[in-house]
Amino acid sequence: MIHLPDDPEAPAQHPRVAFAVPRKVGNAVVRNRIRRCVKGRLLQRVRDPRRGVAPGAYLVTVRPEAAGLGGPEIADLVEGCLDRLDRRR
């Protein structure tokens, strides 16, 4: 996951997310399932007043290994990525 922060002098915006899920990950059903899992975890985090997500643009890149993961495993990976991004700020 890559994060590009918003300009600190500009008014705060909601986080914006783009997905890069190549065909190597699987067919459309698999890619959409993964995208929904990631999006769901991101929305939970955005709505959590204690943790939240920094404003800016996010690029979520999914690798083929993700095809065999379940929803909870994908959610854990998303949380780990967001935690690492938070530590960098």
Explain what this protein looks like in three dimensions.
The structure is a single chain. This protein has 89 residues and is α+β, with helices and mostly antiparallel strands. It has two helices and three strands; from the N terminus they run ββαβα. A three-stranded mixed β-sheet has the order 1-3-2, with no helix packed on it. Helix 1 links the parallel strand 2 and strand 3. The longest helix is centred in the middle third of the chain and has 20 residues. It is globular, with a radius of gyration of 13 Å. The two termini are 14 Å apart. The mean pLDDT is 89.
- Uncertain parts: none
Structural class by secondary-structure content: alpha+beta
Order of strands in the sheet with the most strands? 1-3-2
**What is the percent of helical residues?**
40-55%
List the secondary-structure elements in sequence, H or E: EEHEH
Name the average pLDDT: 89
Gap between N and C termini? 14 Å
Beta strand count: 3
What value does the Rg take, in angstroms?
13 Å
Q: What descriptive keywords fit this protein?
A:
89 residues; alpha+beta; 3 strands
